[in-house]
Amino acid sequence: MLSIEAHIEKHAQHTPNKLAVVCAHGAVTYQQLLQQATTQAQQYQGMQQQGVVLTATSDVEFLVSYFAVHMAGAVAVLLPATATPQQVHQMQNALHSFIFPEGSADVLFTTGTTGTPKGAVISTQAIAATAENIIHAQAYRPDITFIIPGQLNHLGCLSKVFATLAMGATCHLMPKLDLNELFAISAQCKDMAAAAFLVPSCIRMLTHFGGKQMEGLANKMAFIETGGDALDAATMADIHALLPNTRLFNTYASTETGVVSTFEFTHEHVAGCVGKALPHTHFDITPEGHIRCWGRSLMSGYLRMGEQTTFEPLADGRFTTCDWGEIDEQGALHFKCRNSDIINTGGFKVSPQEVESVANSFPEVKACVCIAVPHPILGQALKLLVVPNNHMPIVPRDLARQLKAHLETHQVPLFYEQVEDLALTPNGKINRKWYANK
After folding, report:
1. CA nearest neighbour of 270 among 289, 248, 242
2. pLDDT at res. 379
3. What residues contact residue 6 under an 8 Å CB cut-off, 6+ apart?
4. 74 in Cβ contact with 50 (< 8 Å)
5. 3-state class of 130 per DSSP?
6. Neighbour-count burial of 208, counting CB atoms closer than 10 A to its CB (0-12 exposed, 13-18 middle, 19+ buried)
C-alpha cells in the first residue's frame, strides 16, 4: 500500500495543476502541495519517530505541515484548532525525548464522549488502509470535489482527506457546516461531481433548512457519507427523497479502528446498519455483545500520558469497542449503542438511540435526545428532550402514544421537555456525556 504522501507525489507528476486542497483562504495544486510539504519537511529533519504537535486548523497550511511531518519520518500529534498555546506547550513537554514505535504517523485523541480522551497512535499502514477501505466502498473518482466540514484532528474528517488525496481528487475544507457555503461549492462542481461527509445532525439540518436549494444540489451531489452517531430511518428516507440520485452511506469507524465498514442506504433505509467489513478490516461480536475489530486499519496502541509518557501496544492486534452491535445473516454489522449510553430503568436496559430513532420519525420532532433522570421507584426513568419542528406544539401525551405503537412499554419515556436545541460535541454528535453530568 502506498502512503498518502506517495500518492501526492504520484499525482504531482501526472496531474501537477490539479487542485488538491481548497479552503476559505487559499488553495494548492498537487504540485504546490508536494513542493511546500517537501520544503517544510526540512524543519523536522532529525526528528524521526519523535512527535511534532500541530493544531488542526481547516486550511492549507495545516495540511502542508501535516504531510511535511510525515515526510520527515516524524509523528504528527494533532490537537484541536482551538488548542491554547499553553496546551500545545504542555503536549510538547510531555513528548520531549519520547520515541514512537517505528512506522508511527499520527496521534489522534478520542473525542472523550465515552470517557477521558486517549491518544491513539496511528501507523502509516493504518492510514493507507483506511484510505483504501473508503475508496473501495464508496467508489471515489478523481473528478470529485469532496467537501469536509469539521475538525481535522478527528478521524471522521481526516480520513476523508486521506481517501480524497489518495484518489487524486480535490478536498474542500470548512471549519464547520455552513449550508450556504455547501450549496455554493456544489454549484461550482460539474454535475454529480460533489461529495460530502456530514454527521447525522448536519444531514437533519440539510433536510429541514435546505429548501429550494436542494433541487440544485440534487444534480451535483454524487454521494454523501455519514457516521459518528445514529441516523434514524426517517431521516434516511428524507435525504433520499430530496437527493434521489445521490448515493448515501452510513459508516462505522472510530479513532482506534479506522474505517471498518460502510452501508449504502440509498434504497434501503435500515437504521443502525453500517454494512459489511471492508477489505482491510474484520469484525465480530464478543460474548458480551460488543463489536470487536482487527485488521490493517487499526491503531498500533495508546499513548499513555501521566508522570511519564509511555506507549501501550494493542493487545493481540484486536480492539474491543464500547459499542453494542449485532451481525445479521448477510454479514452486515448493526450498531446498537455505546455501552456507556445504556440506560437501566426498572431492571430493563434501554438504548436511547432506539427511542430517538422512532421519535425523530414524527413530523413534529426536529431533533431529540433520550436521557436518564432519577426516579424514586425505577432508579432511573427515561426523559425525552425534544426540539420541535417549525414551532409545532409538542404534546407529551401524544408523543407517548405514538412511541408506544413502535416500542416496548419500558422503552417509552415517562417525561418530556421541549427545548430550543441540543448539546452537541465539536464534531456534531449529541453530547451524551454533557447530559449525563448535568
Report:
1. 248
2. 84
3. none
4. yes
5. helix
6. middle
Last residue of a domain, one of 337, 368, 401: 337
What band does 116 get if pLDDT is binned at 50, 70 and 90?
Answer: low
Give yes or no: residues 254 and 126 share one domain: yes
Domain with 352, as residue range(s), is 342-436
Question: 3-class DSSP state for residue 409?
Answer: helix
Q: At residue 346, what are phi and psi to the nearest 5 degrees? A: 60, 30
> How does the average pLDDT of the chain come out, rounded?
92
Place of cell 520527515: 72
Pairing of strands 273-277, 258-264: antiparallel
d(CA 210, CA 204): 10
Residue 63 has pLDDT above 70, yes or no: yes
Give the span between the Cα atoms of 21 and 61, in whole angstroms. 10
Report whether 301 contacts 256 (CB < 8 A): no
Residues 386 and 288 in one domain: no
Cα(248)–Cα(72) distance, integer angstroms: 38
How confident is the model over 23-44, as pLDDT tens digits? 999 999 999 999 999 999 999 9
pLDDT given for residue 243 in this prediction: 96
For β-strands 290-295 and 301-305, DSSP reports them as unpaired
Give me 227's grid cell.
457516521
CATH number of the domain residue 27 falls in = 3.40.50.12780
Q: Is 56:78 a contact under the CB 8 Å cutoff? A: yes
DSSP annotation of 316? G
- Is the Cα dihedral 118, 123, 128, 132 positive or negative? negative
What residue type is 284 in one-letter code?
Answer: D
Distance, in Å, from the CA atom of 303 to the CA atom of 100, rounded to the nearest integer, reads 9
User: Are 226 and 292 within one domain?
Assistant: yes
Our count of domains for the chain comes to: 2
Q: Quick check: helix, strand or coil at residue 39?
A: helix
The b/e string for 52-90 (b: 16+ C-beta within 10 A; e otherwise) is bbbbbbbbbebbbbbbbbbbbbbbbbbbbbebeeeeeee
Same domain flag for 283 and 398: no
Give per-residue pLDDT as tens, 178-217. Answer: 999 999 999 999 999 999 999 888 898 898 888 889 999 9
306 CB contacts (<8 Å, ≥6 apart)?
Answer: none
Helix, strand, or coil here: 196?
strand
Instruction: Give the residue with greater pLDDT, 285 vs 176.
Output: 285
